[in-house]
Amino acid sequence: MQLDKEKEYIKPLEQVKDLDPLLEKIGDSKYVLLGEASHGTHEYYTWRAEISKRLIKEKGFSFVAVEGDWPDCFEINRWVKDLPGTPANIADVLKNFKRWPTWMWANWEVAAFAEWMKGYNKHLNTKNKIGFYGLDVYSLWESMEIIVNYLEKEDPEVAALAKRTADCFEPYRQNDSYVTAYRGLKQKCRNEVVQLLKEVRQKTSQYENEPEAGLNAELNSLVLKNAEKYYEAMAQFDHSSWNVRDSHMVETLNTLTDYHGEDTKVIVWEHNTHIGDARATDMAAQGLHNVGQLVRQQHSDDGVYLVGFGSYEGSVIAGDFWGAPMKKMDLPKGIDGSIERKLHTVGAENKLLLFEEGTDLYKKLQDRIGHRAVGVVYDPHRERGNYVSSKISKRYDAFLYIDKTKGLHPLHLQPDGSKTPETYPFGI
Asked: Which residues are within 8 A (CB) of 413 and not within 5 positions of it... i.e. 6 or more apart?
């Protein structure tokens, strides 16, 4: 497969204005999912931020939903909307991200985008302020504590149910392994979680003593319900936990869009493995689905646009094993036969690829090819195992290729002394 003859279908990607063809192709789509090939790359965060800014300013998008925990991201949401009781500085909000890997959201790149969002929101009324929410399922204990504390003040009757639910889970709290905990979980706990969600959902409209308080209660309850399913699936030692997690993220996304109304337009930030359609990868053969596939299946009539990211070489922030100290690692050159190597061979510059069915580029990239996926745990010495067999033009609607990338900037580090690092990849 030679791509050198397809340059007319491959656009330059250096300045913000180079996103014009992408914005044109997105058109009136209500769902735009923006990926990343790693959780620790500066350029993925900054380009996603620039795309998101333009979608918000030019196309009226309503919120950004990310692969992060609901409670922590809801504090970012409160901060960008300048709600009462929020800290003066975004760094004070992001430092509360305690669950490993903290660098995914507690970084200078996210801080810069959050500051932009807050500035943009200053000119909007409360109802129309742009939100920032977490979609993930991991915050079991945090969500439970938030619900109990909130309901004690707002709804003592439902608070009693929340306390019983918390007490049911308490014996497992000190266990280091969620998997082990859920092997012993009693059916009683599961039933009470479902009942709690039902009660909260019925009363959310009564909980709006401050903006989105009811939404916060409902989504924390949803985390409890699906976290129970997730860790039960983890205990089975099969792939079903992946499906539970991605289904939860889509259920959360749907709850958010319902809350914001029928004219809502949403932006999602997640890893390529979540937002790229699983049916165009070898995930499908394992019985796995993901966010991109589910959103396409459920909302195609409203317009769904999936954007993947990748790079040829550089550096990345990751850990040697789960829970390990994060560090800056070399990102090796893309291997032979990969989409990264083929795009580098065309020319060592950044590129925007737009896939439109019937074009030569679409046809050439509908066959399987290796596509790098770097997780929060990464071993660059076992590089071939990091590639996912993908039909690129079916997995995504567009692809942003960055020839050389660098690791992002975790918030607790102060590069160049006390200066905030440059968080934009272009001269703006």
From this structure: none
Q: What is the mean pLDDT of residues 228-235?
A: 73
Residue by residue, DSSP assigns 241-268 as HHHHHHHHHHHHHHHHHHHH-TT--EEE
In the structure encoding, which two tokens stand for residue 259, read together? 């809350």
* Beta partners for residue 173, in sequence order: none
| Dihedral angle, C-alpha 122, 127, 129, 132, nearest 10 ° | 140
Measured at the CA of 31, the angle between CA 27 and CA 32, to 5 degrees, comes to 75
Give the model's confidence band at 140: pLDDT under 50 very low, under 70 low, under 90 confident, else very high.
Answer: confident
Give me the pLDDT at residue 425, please: 40
Q: How far is CA 425 from the centre of its chain?
A: 21
In a domain, 387, yes or no: yes
Q: Are strands 10-12 and 351-354 parallel, antiparallel or unpaired?
A: antiparallel
Which of 170-184, 212-226, 245-259, 316-330 shows the lowest mean pLDDT across its residues? Answer: 170-184
Residue 188 and residue 170: Cα distance in Å, rounded?
Answer: 13
Q: What per-residue confidence (pLDDT) applies to 174?
A: 57
d(Cα 86, Cα 75) in Å, to the nearest integer? Answer: 8
Residue 357 identity: E
The domain tally of the chain equals 1
Q: How many residues does the chain have?
A: 428
> Which pairs with CB-CB distance under 8 Å and at least 24 residues apart come from 43-46?
43/311, 43/402, 43/405, 43/406, 43/425, 44/309, 44/402, 44/405, 45/107, 45/109, 45/110, 45/113, 45/408, 46/109, 46/112, 46/423, 46/424, 46/425
Helix (H, G, I), strand (E, B) or coil at 327: strand
What is the predicted pLDDT for the residue at 195?
74
Contact yes or no for 338/371 (Cβ under 8 A): yes
CATH code: domain of residue 375: 3.40.1660.10
Question: What pTM was estimated for this model as a whole?
Answer: 0.89
Q: What is the mean pLDDT of the chain?
A: 87
Domain membership of residue 387 as a residue range: 1-69+266-428
Structure tokens at 246: 């991605």
